[in-house]
Write a structure and sequence with these properties.
The strands form 3 sheets. Strands 7-8-9-3-10-11 form a 6-stranded mixed beta sheet, with helices on both faces. It has a 5-stranded antiparallel beta sheet with strand order 2-1-4-5-6, with helices on one face. A 4-stranded antiparallel beta sheet has the order 13-14-12-15, sandwiched between helices. It folds into 2 domains: about 250 residues, 3-Layer(aba) Sandwich (Rossmann fold); about 100 residues, ACT domain (Alpha-Beta Plaits). It is α/β, with parallel strands linked by helices. The chain is globular and about 80 Å long. Helix content is about 35%, strand content about 30%. Bound molecules: adenosine-5'-triphosphate. Adenosine-5'-triphosphate binds next to strand 2 and helix 1. Adenosine-5'-triphosphate (ATP) binds next to strand 2 and helix 1. Keywords: Amino-acid transport, ATP-binding, Cell membrane, Membrane, Nucleotide-binding, Translocase, Transport.
């Protein structure tokens, strides 16, 4: 049984400035289940940070309701607009169960690694020696035991983020919010941090809300994805659904970047074969998920429709143990047969995007 740990309903966040009103979040409802790694993807300014800051009431919404772990943090009445919110004392206690990590780590530069992590335990009921043991245990978890007495300035970006993760975990949170936590890191370090987040999710059941402008990061760890644009969630689904059958143009763009297929299309489009397509030829992208990959579809196109497929690029990713493939192909054959072949591909759950030709 899945169980919601974060329920946001009809959230609006509107900022009023002197001359303008900014609707940063517009009527967003989102349910995050315990144990999810929920990726929220969008470009800068889409409203991602504002939305996740609503979860722990760092940002009070203009309208909507927030329930975290069964406790109502905030609710506005649909009719009267009257707002009720959790008491400050209760909120303080419950916020400790929601860890946060950020792009720029937010460490205290004058404090050692140990002191940075211990800082999060200042209100804890633990005795001093228990706090010490807890910090040591957290540093071991993020593989930084040997850096305990160093200062942030002596650490790499990845190491700083691991200190921030240890600090975020100090009060045994059930939820970790990661706000662009890998955006300032190189690809290798990014992967190490994402692997650590995945480990925290699988080994400790930590629920993670991952906000990012990089679908690549989401692809590595998330099981669910929401795409945000102009304050709204424009598309959502399981990672596989989103990668296999993106519906919105923006979602497609994110996926094309994450799978590098955008670069492949760009390069291949300049090839004479594509540049000078003959009549009856189309340049297309075929995407498929799971079992389809084992079927000899391409061979079937020739056998059943006399349509030949010249594969110019192929990429198979394994997402959540399921293969997801993309092919760039030139298909050629009799126009009617070609159309039937495309319908057949569609019937086999192969997503076909015609990039060029076929008019
Ligand atoms: N405190 C605030 N006062 C006024 N406007 C704000 C405030 N916070 C955010 N905004 C505006 O709300 C919109 C959404 O910002 P938000 O930071 O949530 O986007 P984002 O998707 O997280 O982008 P980024 O990754 O660049 O932070 C932007 O237009 C931003 O300028």
């Amino acid at each position: 049984m899945t169980e919601s740990i974060i329920e946001l309903k009809n959230i609006d966040v509107t900022f009023h400035q002197k001359k303008r009103t900014i609707e940063a979040v517009k009527n967003v409802s989102i349910n995050i289940d315990r144990g999810d790694v929920y990726g929220i993807v969008g470009y800068s300014g889409a409203g991602k940070s504002t939305l996740v800051r609503v979860i722990n009431l760092l940002q009070e919404p203009t309208r909507g309701s927030i329930v975290v772990n069964g406790t109502t943090f905030f609710q506005s009445d649909e009719h009267s607009g009257q707002k009720t919110r959790i008491s400050n004392n209760d909120l303080r206690v419950r916020r400790r169960k929601i860890g946060m990590i950020f792009q720029h780590f937010n460490l205290l530069n004058e404090r050692t690694v140990t002191e940075n992590v211990a800082f999060a335990l200042q209100h804890s009921q633990l005795k001093d020696d228990e706090k010490k043991a807890k910090v040591a245990e957290l540093l071991a978890l993020v593989d930084l035991s040997d850096r305990a007495e160093q200062y942030p300035s002596q650490l790499s970006g990845g190491q700083k983020q691991r200190v921030a993760i240890a600090r975020a975990l100090a009060n045994d949170p059930e939820i970790l919010i990661s706000d662009e936590a890998t955006s300032a890191l190189d690809p290798k370090t990014t992967n190490q941090i994402l692997a650590l987040l995945k480990k925290l999710n699988t080994e400790f059941g930590l629920t993670i809300v991952l906000i990012t402008h990089e679908m690549q990061a989401v692809k590595e760890v998330a099981n669910k994805v929401a795409v945000m644009q102009n304050g709204e969630i424009i598309e959502r689904g399981s990672l596989l659904e989103i990668f296999a059958q993106p519906k919105q143009q923006l979602t497609r763009e994110f996926i094309e970047t994450a799978t590098n297929i955008d670069k492949a299309i760009e390069t291949i489009s300049h090839e004479p074969l594509v540049n000078k397509l003959k009549d009856g030829e189309i340049f297309a992208r075929l995407s498929y998920v799971g079992e389809t990959t084992d079927e000899p579809l391409i061979a079937g196109l020739f056998r059943d429709f006399n349509v030949t497929a010249n594969i110019l690029y192929g990429n198979i990713e394994v997402l959540q143990d399921t293969p997801v493939g993309s092919l760039l192909v030139i298909l050629s054959g009799d126009p009617t047969q070609l159309q039937t072949a495309l319908s057949t591909l569609h019937d086999h759950h192969v997503d076909v995007t015609v990039i060029k030709g076929g008019n």
